[in-house]
Amino acid sequence: MLVPRLLGAVTIAFSAAIIARPHLMARPSGHAGPDGQVPHDIRLLMHAIGVRDMALGALMLCAPGPAAMRAAVAARVASDLGDAVVFGTRLPRAEQRLKIGAAAAGWAAVCAYSLRHIPAAAPARYRRR
What we know:
- Helices cover 71% and strands 0% of the residues.
- By secondary structure, it is mostly helical.
- The longest helix is centred in the middle third of the chain and has 25 residues, at 66-90.
């Protein structure tokens, strides 16, 4: 289950970066002002997305067994697919929709592929007696 755990750690790191520097996501999505500043309401949105993704990354990183890991990865994939649909269809400019939608869909695909690295059955140490 190393691959999903690594993806969880990367998710946590990127989420922390978005929380610390909302312009990392606000600029590519067209939500920064002409001077590069991020308005307060957009900062709140970027923080909320960062916190959500950080929680999902932590679940992926710390899942105690295969079933919990599959659930954590599925939640990550669902969130990214939701982002792909919303941002990929609702951002004001076509290049923003394509860039952000493709990034979210791409991360969903990578995480979905990582499901292949989760064993079908729990190792003996995870089974209840």
